[in-house]
Design goal:
With about 120 residues, the chain is mostly helical. About 85% of the residues lie in helices and about 0% in strands. It is globular.
Length: about 120
């Protein structure tokens, strides 16, 4: 049974990225810059900082803390677009937010890795 579900599961990320790319328009990237900026800052900076603080307060070991912070520093999942579309949300904005976060994560993730290495 696991083997039967493995193949479709492996393709889900690629399908999600294709859906986001198909929905993305140049105008959507420029739409709601404040919303896109705030959500990117929250997801890529604030959430990892809170995770780092909570992990230290809870006494997590160094490796576990690093994994938790890096996990929380990831950009939003492409499935957020699929869910927004299925639930009648603002799918073009979600596609733009997903793309923006993935582009910014190329800068923030190396910074988090460097910070955690100290």
């Amino acid at each position: 049974m696991a083997g039967l579900l493995r193949s479709p599961a492996q393709g889900s990320l690629a399908i999600g990225l294709l859906c986001v790319g198909a929905a993305l328009t140049p105008g959507a990237l420029a739409a709601s810059p404040l919303t896109q900026g705030l959500t990117a800052a929250l997801k890529l900076l604030v959430v990892p900082v809170v995770t780092l603080g909570l992990g230290r307060v809870l006494g997590l070991e160094t490796q576990a803390l690093a994994v938790a912070v890096l996990f929380m520093a990831q950009p939003t999942a492409t499935t957020a677009y699929v869910q927004a579309r299925a639930m009648g949300g603002d799918a073009p904005l979600m596609a733009a937010m997903t793309t923006t976060q993935h582009l910014l994560a190329m800068l923030t993730l190396p910074l988090w890795v460097a910070l955690l290495a100290l």
